[in-house]
Design goal:
Amino acid/polyamine transporter I; mainly alpha; 19 helices; two-stranded antiparallel sheet
Length: about 475
Amino acid sequence: MDATQIMKADDKKEKKEEEVVHLRREIGLLPAACFIIGTVVGSGIFIAPKGVLINSGSVGLSLLVWVLCGVLSLFGALCYAELGTSFTKSGGHYTYLLETLGPLPAFLRLWVEFLFIRPAVASYVSLAFGRYVVEPFFAPCAAPTVLIKIVSILGLTFVVAVNCWSVTWASRTQITLTFVKMFALVLIIVPGVIALAKGKTENFQNGFEVDSLTLDRLPLAFYNGLYAYGGWFYLNFVTEEVINPNRNIPLAIICSMVTVTVCYVLVNVAYYTMMTPAELLLSDAVAVTFANRAFEGLASVIPFLVALSCLGALNGGFFGSPRMLFVGAREGHWPPIFSMIHIRRHTPLPAVLLLYPLVVVMLITGEIYQLINFASFARWFFIALATLGMLIHRYRFPLHPRPFKVPLVIAVTFTVVCFFIVGLSLYSDPWNTGRSCALTLTGVPVYYVTVYRFRLPHRWRRIFNYCSMHLQILLEVTQQEVQTY
């Protein structure tokens, strides 16, 4: 009888532990690798080739840019593997800046992420999704812009709903869409390689003409290439949800980035095998033009696969990025409501929902190539700051545990190249980068008024607390009951 009572008590205790509200470790090695690949391989490889070619000026140089962007992204990913295993909190860039350089740079990263970086990134991925869904129905005529934006908003709404509903469903959606997009890449690579093997090499002759290359436009070529590789850092946003992060984060990062780099270079080779540079520059949907050339019978399949690929990248962004806001709110750098999770679904519901209207507004008002340049300056500036912070932290705290340690030459090379590209971009595109820099600096007074010394009037605080309480009740969210780091 006593034994039975003890067993019942243990069962009750175990059940209570399962019902405790917190973010659970549910991401293994395969989901982690799929999460990175699925976020990286989105609209970029189907849109960015045009931007890379315009700014590099030749086929050979554009392929070189793709290779160098892949190597640079791998270097950055390795740096973030060290940061992710050294600091066990979720939050990515924000957490690493907070731990290495202090609260002001961390707050500014949080500020620009939700003011314009994340809305810009999500909106141009959404626009790519809408374009690839709509354009095949209107070819060869131009598709209505309004219809493209409506379909983009529908895709965005689906992704937000999945990420609000369940972490498990968001993870499964990501795995499924990753396999779909890899199939799409293979479908492009194979006919291109076959044509190349048969001697179709005329588009590669005189591939390194440098007459049209100008130094001021080269950083924009790298921005477009790096945009296509963007997403290698998203796994670091969910460190607290990765099973055995010390092993799985470095492994997932290395395997996924090598795979993506090889695929991207082969896809671009396939593009240039089947299309002339002039044809590529005239196309707003490169993969669709390629499909019409490579296999007419399956031409309608490619846009569908590309659209699903964009949806996967969008899903990965909405899965990872709200965790940065979640951690920032937990640290006191954002309103506490955003550090809460749903009591049954265990998703960071307020953080996900905040992004939705911001993305919709930028999606309606933005243009895709301007969005890339606009967001890239602040994104790469803070990535460079994070890796610089890692080097400073190594020097200041040499005994800090580092389960994975990237070679010093890789960390230094990545940091220097990032600062160089960011600095040169101020000269290449002063309008967009200047706006990006100015918007970043607007976070400084906000930090000193709302975080460093909370100086809001008492009446405002009362209204703010009242709204927060009712939002918490409406959304059914609460603070985590277990520390997950």
